[in-house]
Amino acid sequence: MKQSFYFVFFLSALLSFFTACSDSNEDGNDEPQLDGDQEEDGDTGLDGDEEDDEPSDGDEDGDTEDGEEEEQAPEMPVAACGMPNYELIPTDELGQIVDWKNDPFYDLDPDTIDGLLNNEGYDALSPVPYGCRVFMFRYTTQDRGQKVEATAVLGIPANTDEVQSKDFPMSLFLHGTTGFADVCAPGREGSGQLEAALLASQGFIAVAPDYIGLNSFGDASTARHAYLGGEQVAIGSWDALRAARQLLADEDFQQEIQANEQVVVWGGSQGGHAALFTELYGPYYAPEMDVAAVVALVPPSDLLSLASIAVSEFGPPSIAFTSVLTTLRAWYGAPENLNNVFVNEDPYFLADNAEQYVFMEGMEECDIGDVFNEDDFSQVSDIFTDDFAGKGAEERWDELEPWSCYFRENGLSTTSVPALRYTPTLMVYSELDDLVVTAPQLDDFDKLCQSGYQLEQINCTGAGHSAGAIWSLPEQVAWVRQRLAGEAMDSAKLCQRTEPVCCLGTPEDECTSKR
């Protein structure tokens, strides 16, 4: 959720994850080289073993026949929580390229990438199979049935002359919290390009959306970003993937590669929530996409429990939920104001000015620290009204509508949107996470499993919010390799809640033993 996925995480996570999944081989196959069985199963993704999982209506309708998938897709539920009804624009009218440009700073050959890796102490990750080229693009999507434009970064493998196949799998990378306005877009400050470049060097066509409301170039956003809003991020992400496919096919683009059918959806923190909801809405909005696996790192899947924690005791969730409440109110359109939620006292007058602060109005840098003095916030009563905090702490959310509805609709186990398929999903937790507090999220893991989700989980002992995502990288790599190779999930681990363990990447001084 908060900006806790630092540069070192992006570097180690992306390279460790995708190097293991995408090593090239001597015969030129540029699909992920995963294990000895890849030659037989690599082109089919999960099709060979998916029937071992729970039934999936979306898989049957959306994966096999071109041309009719969108017609067969069930109608997507919209306009929850008393919103005025709206109709979605047909998907064939969206995902269109508006503009694109190369970002030559990230056009790197393999030797340069290897040199950078070696300088940073990641020599075990080289040599990389490819160089990379990075592009930025604007595309059409929609927000509450209104056409809008959003931006994303595209990374493609380069130096592919000697490979026989030019088909590459696609990776949809969903970023953690960077902020809530255009000035905060990952593609604006470079982290989006970094992510896409690193993935591309490992043999993936990488699509890294900035999210709706976070435009990185061109005209300003006409829609505001809905923080932890499932529908908005899912729609924008799928249209970004569609637009990337269109760009690859454009004669003016002139890149001799194309995307194959496999897609991995992966994200951390806010991006972990985004990954789960992007997949939830996939059968409705993008049934043609073949999603092989989902990886959700420290995801806030249960918003109701986090909201209760946020208003019960001052801590990181208290600060985070100022943005959650403010942006969801703006997206859903109610209540009329925030007077019953935030205090309205000197010096910040939060109830009156929350939107100005959260959406960075008039600010040139995306740093909320330039607005607030952290010493002014030390207890719940500095932020929330006594009535709101009291009822929320007692979990009397039914007395605090529409907030109860907002949190339920954007929580994976409580949303009214039916899950139509259960794609293999890995959930990673951090034992000492004080932002996305672990215990209630593990309870949500159990609820999701009971409803049919096909989940495995890792809980890294001694890890804070982002540390678990980093320390569990070896486990993530192994798990994703198995999914992309078409292997069924291990029945002994499926939906099993285990005690925290020393993850394989945990520093030696943090644990007395390894898994």
How does this structure look, described?
With 515 residues, the chain is α/β, with parallel strands linked by helices. It contains 17 helices and 9 strands. It has a 9-stranded mixed beta sheet, sandwiched between helices.
The side-by-side strand order for the widest beta sheet comes to 1-2-3-5-4-6-7-8-9
The helix fraction, in percent, is: 25-40%
Distance between the termini: 28 Å
Order of secondary-structure elements = HHHHEHEEEHHEHEHEHHHHHEHEHH
How does the helix and strand content classify structurally?
alpha/beta
Taking the sheet with the most strands, its summary is: 9 strands, mixed
The proportion of residues in beta strands is: 5-15%
Average of per-residue pLDDT values: 84
Number of helical stretches of at least 4 residues: 17
Regions with pLDDT < 50 over 5+ consecutive residues?
2-70
Total number of β-strand segments?
9
C-alpha Rg, in Å?
22 Å
> What overall form do the CA principal axes indicate?
globular
Record keyword descriptors for this entry:
515 residues; alpha/beta; 33% helix; 15% strand
Which SSEs are present, and which pair or pack?
Elements: H1 7-21, H2 38-41, H3 57-62, H4 69-72, E1 97-102, H5 110-119, E2 131-143, E3 146-158, E4 167-174, H6 186-189, H7 191-201, E5 205-209, H8 230-249, E6 258-268, H9 270-285, E7 290-297, H10 303-312, H11 316-332, H12 350-358, H13 386-393, H14 403-409, E8 425-430, H15 438-450, E9 455-460, H16 467-471, H17 473-484
Parallel strand pairs: 4-5, 4-6, 6-7, 7-8, 8-9
Antiparallel strand pairs: 1-2, 2-3, 3-5
Helix pairs in contact: 1-7, 1-17, 8-9, 10-11, 10-13
